[in-house]
Amino acid sequence: MAILQGTLDLLILRTLLFGSHHGQGIAHAIRRQSEEVLLVDHGSLYPALQRLEEKGWLLAEWGTSENNRKARFYTLTKAGRKQLTEETSAWRRLVAAVGRVLEPEGA
């Protein structure tokens, strides 16, 4: 299933809350945590990682992946944690509002 526009940043920030990952690791974690429902397209993932790094929400460092390949590992910054809190709150408000619209009248 495609990820809704505007949610990829939130999913990346949330995935990195518990430690650094490289791009493939982030995509895999999102897929696994969503029980194989959310598939992150690499054509969307890497521009998003670059954008989040430019905003100061992520730090990136070169390292070696579990496949012994050179990879960039991304870590959440203090500003990224703050942004995650704000985006999570906004997402929950949105989900609640959509839920109210989808509820049958009088339910």
How are the strands of the biggest sheet laid out side by side? 1-3-2
Using DSSP, what is the number of strands?
3
Report the end-to-end length measured between terminal Cα atoms: 29 Å
Biggest beta sheet attributes: 3 strands, antiparallel
Which percent range describes the beta-strand content?
Answer: 5-15%
Rg (CA only)? 16 Å
CATH architectural designation: Orthogonal Bundle
Fourth CATH level, the homologous superfamily:
Winged helix-like DNA-binding domain superfamily/Winged helix DNA-binding domain
The run of helices and strands is HEHHEEH
Task: Give the class from helix and strand content and strand pairing.
Answer: alpha+beta
Task: Please describe what this structure looks like.
This protein is α+β, with helices and mostly antiparallel strands and 107 residues long. The chain has one domain (8-102): Winged helix-like DNA-binding domain superfamily/Winged helix DNA-binding domain (Arc Repressor Mutant, subunit A). It is 53% helix and 15% strand. Strands 1-3-2 form a three-stranded antiparallel sheet. β2 and β3 form a beta hairpin. The longest helix is centred in the C-terminal third of the chain and has 25 residues, at 78-102. The protein is elongated.
In short:
With 107 residues, this protein is of the alpha+beta class.
How would you summarize the topology of this molecule?
Blueprint: H1 8-15, E1 21-22, H2 23-33, H3 42-54, E2 58-64, E3 70-76, H4 78-102
Antiparallel strand pairs: 1-3, 2-3
